[in-house]
Amino acid sequence: MRSNADELISYLADIVGPRWVKTESVDLNHYGKDWTNDVNPNPSAIVFPASIEEIKLIVALANKKKVALVPSGGRTGLSGGALAENSEVVVSFDRMNKILEFNAEDRLITCEPGVTTKTLQEYAEEKELYYPVDFASSGSSQLGGNVATNAGGIKVIRYGMTRNWVQGMKVVTGEGQLLDLNRGLVKNASGLDFRHLFIGSEGTLGFIIELTIGLSSLPKGSTVILVGLNNMIDTMTVLEAFRNKLTLNAFEFFSDKALAHVVKEHALQKPFDKICEFYALIEFENTTSSDLDTAQSIFEHCFKCGLVVNGTISQSSREAKKLWRFREDITSAISKYSPYKNDISVRISQVPSFLSELDELIKRIYPSFETLFFGHIGDGNIHLNIVKPAGLTTKDFYKECEKVTEMVFGLVQKFGGSVSAEHGIGVLKKPYLRYSRSKEEITYMKAVKRIFDPNNIMNPGKLVDIN
Ligand code: 2HG
Ligand code: ZN
To answer: 133 CA to middle of ligand 2, Å?
Structure first.
């Protein structure tokens, strides 16, 4: 007699073909997790559909057999949104990676969800247009995953989050219904826009199976300035000075401790001889020929006021890329230390007082752990990473960190901020959702999940629990 698991695998193989169902432990381990640290992947199978029809059949099968499905994109998430630890079937979009249509008049690309961010960006550029959502993981992150987490990244200050660029979306709900949402319309005031429920739903409502993405005009060239600061709080005064006179694409910051890891890992030279405690990386678009002079005079003004203590400006795109590395390579440089991650945000105006209270709290509660500050401070998003000391196991280290998470999130709540600015809730931040969403909001979230996914087959255990 065949076991239930064998039966399920044979049904899946009937849908996608035996080649496209994988059950070897190397595949289960690879596809059963994302970039989240310290997890135990344990899916029952990985399935690789190639069409909407196949997805519909998989969803119908899962409802019939009450099997949990985990949608899987580039798996670059950091909150465990793509984890499969409980014998789920992982549904990978690796084969659904085609650009389907480009419309120059509408400035829209329609594509399958497995297209990577970089492929979309490069395709847009070939058409002399621009897809502005960008992050260090653009080479492997997939559009479906970006939309499911409403990914942010380094250009949010100028272009907003992924949500702003989703003009249309086809989904198969957990119940198995195919919905064609918004269809690329610019204006559409015909009632509830379900597109926005699926954006950021982390695969808990259904599968995103096709996307229509808006594009922007190609920006003119850009210039990067890296400045050194003596304290975190001044960063926002510097932001204001630059933002008032220039078109900023990005305004990032990082501490010297974070920089030290990048410099060591990649054997780079530090940007300045003198150590500064913090750095701000500013990218602005060269909209007029006087922008460079303007940037120079703002820098001089900030220097005279003692806001910045050092600075360098890129003279070429190669130099700009070099400066970006100091910021973009932080996550990969520290990954071997299994850092405990926080991805928090407050309103821009609240950043200075929030940071000063956070800094004080961290000094008090993490006396012996190395804490790294960095992030997209121009949009109010701070990535606070705590580095694991060599002597502790990851488990014990995370336990220690979790003890103080409540205090950090208590502060986030006091400032009306978010416990997840751009990484999503997944499994990691689920216990803390209540610090940024009210009881009533969470109840409505659960109710919405029940409507779209009555059998709870879609990514159960992520974002909210409905059982
Ligand atoms: C970044 O901004 C990513 O580099 C990762 O969102 C942040 O590693 C992190 O905490
Ligand atoms: Zn980030």
So the answer is: 12
Contacts for 403 with CB less than 8 Å, ≥ 6 apart: none
Position in ligand 1 atom list of the atom nearest CA 341: 10
Question: Which atom of ligand 1 is least distant from the CA of 137?
Answer: 3
- Number of other residues whose CB lies within 10 A of the CB of residue 6: 11
Q: How far apart are the CA of 343 and the centre of ligand 2, in A?
A: 7
Domains observed in the chain? 4-94 (3.30.43.10), 99-217 (3.30.465.10), 222-331 (3.30.70.2190), 338-435 (3.30.70.2740)
Tokens 């847009």 belong to 124
Nearest residue CA, atom 10 of ligand 1?
383
- Distance (Å, rounded) from C-alpha 23 to C-alpha 35? 21
Expressed in angstroms and rounded, the spacing between residue 27 Cα and the centre of ligand 1 is: 26
Contact 150, 425 (CB under 8 A): no
Q: What is the mean pLDDT of each run of 10 residues along the chain (467 residues)?
A: 86 98 98 94 98 98 98 97 98 98 98 98 98 96 98 98 98 98 98 98 98 97 96 93 98 98 96 95 96 97 96 97 97 94 97 94 87 97 94 90 93 98 97 98 98 98 94
